[in-house]
């Protein structure tokens, strides 16, 4: 029986997928005769970049309590991170994620896979952070410009659990090329890599093969349903809380930010069948809610040192918003929103462009602000943590039209490419196929002229073709990244200059059908 449970992040949503499959997992590998059953406990978190707890849940100190509790009661335990840790936290805007590696070193992390956010500051910073880690970092399908694995990463890693050998490799979603800033780093296909490395590990004597995957849910299911060679997949990227087991393979994901820890207790044994020994394993799942434990004092103290440093930089008021703001993930990736309009207006004014466009995936606060709130530098940095800069491009109306088609092409997937705009209005159809969704565009109150030239303010990530905006690559750059100002600083200055702001959704982006 296939058993899959998906829990929404912070909400009680769940779904079950049931199908017929084998109930005993058996691999025809040589295993020691007469060996006693042994257990390996996998302690899994993913998408953890936030230092502190939020609403009594998550953060490094509560995670550390769970790790210590599990380690104390386990025969053998591995603390594992499914990627996305050096960005996009508040402090990463200042130290490019060095604090997270320090804290994970302190927590004696055993193993990690590269996530897409490890590349937000470019491949050189990713290599620098990997070099600071006192734990192995898997980059099994990453390749530098010379076709070699990213410097400092490992392709496979093994450990002995009693008489059994367990092999690990890591997979990073190839989508990283579009949604982050990996430069010349490329990402090999997931299924081909999984098959090759699973076979390599088994040839080297591994009884059990575990993959760490910073991969999307559809990629996860492909790896489970295809002949990938993976026994257990510890995944990340989607911020889902998932357990899946079909009697042959298992995969889990642990939400995000340490709100939950997913524990997979793997029992390994040898059984006799038809006169020969067979290795068998089975999983048991536990989901720990970090709200049920107290923060670990030692880790909490270390976190507080970083939080105190951050407060000196960020707890400075800049202006008041008379209207409410909403930066929740589904909002900034699916509809016109006040905070996106504010950011786009600040960018357009800051570089004196005709229009502005920024991607919803770059707005990261995932929170709401009440009308009348006094905004601080911390609030703006929370929303724009990537260190992106505002560049100015010269584009034709036809190119702008193509860019907006990209912006609405994956709305149903909650993709980060959804546009917040300034200086123009757009009507688009949800029912139309991708690439045919834009129905009308006006600029400065006039219908767009596809042959005319317009100036565009956008962020340097999008300008490089990020989030699918390939049409911007190669466009004449009137203000390039070297000469540009940080987006966050531009928004702070915009709010401070106004003193009071009243952004709202006002019909810039209208969906029909």
For the largest beta-sheet, the strand count, sense and barrel status come to: 8 strands, mixed
Low-pLDDT runs of 5+ residues are 8-31
Distance between the termini: 40 Å
Give the DSSP E fraction (strand runs of 2 or more residues).
25-35%
How many distinct domains?
2
Q: Oligomeric status of the shown chains?
A: single chain
In total, the number of strands is 32
- The CATH superfamily name of the largest domain is Metallo-dependent phosphatases
Evaluate the radius of gyration: 24 Å
Describe the strand arrangement of the main beta sheet, using strand numbers.
2-1-14-15-13-12-10-9
Shape descriptor reads globular
Class by SSE composition = alpha/beta
Mean pLDDT: 92
| CATH topology call of the largest domain | Purple Acid Phosphatase, chain A, domain 2
From the 3D coordinates, which CATH architecture of the largest domain would you assign? 4-Layer Sandwich
What is the number of helices? Answer: 14
Q: Which percent bin holds the helix content?
A: 25-40%
Briefly, what CATH class of the largest domain?
A: Alpha Beta
Task: Give short descriptive properties of this protein.
513 residues; alpha/beta; Purple Acid Phosphatase, chain A, domain 2; 5'-nucleotidase,  domain 2; 2 domains; 8-stranded mixed sheet; 7-stranded mixed sheet; globular
Walk me through the structure.
The protein has 14 helices and 32 strands. With 513 residues, it is of the alpha/beta class. The chain folds into two domains: 35-306, Purple Acid Phosphatase, chain A, domain 2 (4-Layer Sandwich); 317-512, 5'-Nucleotidase, C-terminal domain (5'-nucleotidase,  domain 2, Alpha-Beta Complex), CATH 3.90.780.10. It has an eight-stranded mixed beta sheet, covered by helices on one side. Strands 3-17-16-4-5-6-7 form a seven-stranded mixed beta sheet, covered by helices on one side. Strands 20, 23, 24, 28, 29 and 30 form a six-stranded mixed beta sheet that branches. A hairpin with a 4-residue loop joins strand 14 and strand 15 (250-254). Helix 1 packs antiparallel against helix 8 and helix 11 (377-383) packs across helix 14. The chain is globular. The two termini are 40 Å apart.
């Amino acid at each position: 029986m296939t058993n899959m449970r998906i829990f929404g992040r912070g909400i009680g949503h769940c779904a079950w997928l049931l199908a017929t499959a084998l109930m005993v997992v058996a691999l025809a590998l040589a295993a020691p005769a007469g060996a006693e059953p042994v257990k390996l406990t996998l302690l899994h978190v993913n998408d953890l970049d936030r230092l502190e707890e939020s609403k009594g849940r998550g953060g490094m100190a509560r995670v550390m309590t769970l790790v210590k509790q599990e380690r104390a009661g386990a025969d053998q335990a591995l603390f594992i991170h499914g990627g996305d840790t050096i960005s996009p936290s508040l402090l990463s805007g200042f130290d490019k994620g060095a604090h997270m590696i320090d804290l994970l070193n302190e927590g004696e992390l055993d193993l990690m896979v590269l996530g897409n956010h490890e590349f937000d500051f470019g491949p050189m910073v990713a290599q620098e952070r990997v070099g600071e880690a006192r734990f192995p970092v898997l980059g099994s399908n990453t390749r530098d410009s010379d076709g070699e694995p990213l410097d400092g990463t490992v392709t496979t890693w093994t450990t002995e659990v009693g008489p059994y050998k367990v092999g690990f490799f890591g997979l990073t979603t190839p989508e990283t090329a579009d949604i982050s800033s990996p430069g010349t780093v490329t990402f090999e296909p997931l299924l081909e890599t999984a098959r090759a490395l699973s076979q390599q590990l088994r040839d080297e004597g591994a009884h059990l093969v575990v993959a760490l995957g910073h991969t999307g849910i559809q990629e996860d299911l492909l790896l489970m349903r295809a002949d990938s060679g993976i026994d257990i997949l510890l995944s990340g990227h989607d911020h889902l809380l998932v357990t899946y087991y079909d009697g042959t393979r298992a995969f889990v994901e642990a939400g995000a930010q340490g709100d939950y820890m997913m524990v997979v207790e793997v029992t390994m044994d040898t059984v006799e069948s038809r006169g020969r020994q067979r290795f068998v394993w089975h999983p048991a799942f536990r989901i720990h809610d970090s709200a049920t434990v107290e923060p670990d004092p030692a880790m909490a103290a270390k976190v507080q040192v970083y939080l105190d440093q951050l407060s000196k930089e960020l707890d400075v008021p800049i202006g008041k918003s008379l209207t409410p703001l909403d930066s929740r993930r589904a909002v900034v990736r699916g509809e016109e929103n006040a905070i996106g309009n504010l950011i786009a207006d600040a960018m357009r004014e800051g570089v004196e462009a005709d229009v502005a466009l920024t991607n919803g995936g770059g707005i990261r606060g995932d929170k709401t602000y009440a009308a009348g709130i006094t905004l601080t530098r911390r609030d703006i940095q929370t929303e724009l943590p990537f260190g992106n800069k505002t560049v100015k491009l010269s584009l034709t109306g036809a190119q702008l039209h193509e860019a907006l088609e990209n912006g609405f092409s994956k709305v149903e997937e909650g993709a980060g490419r959804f546009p917040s705009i300034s200086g123009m209005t757009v009507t688009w159809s949800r029912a139309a196929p991708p690439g045919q969704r834009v129905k009308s565009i006006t600029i400065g109150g006039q219908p767009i002229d596809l042959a005319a030239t317009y100036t565009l303010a956008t962020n340097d990530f999008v300008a490089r073709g990020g989030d699918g905006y390939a049409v911007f690559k190669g466009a004449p750059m009137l203000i390039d990244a070297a000469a540009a100002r940080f987006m966050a600083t531009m928004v702070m200055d915009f709010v401070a200059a106004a003193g009071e702001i009243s952004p709202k959704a006002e019909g810039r982006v209208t969906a029909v059908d």
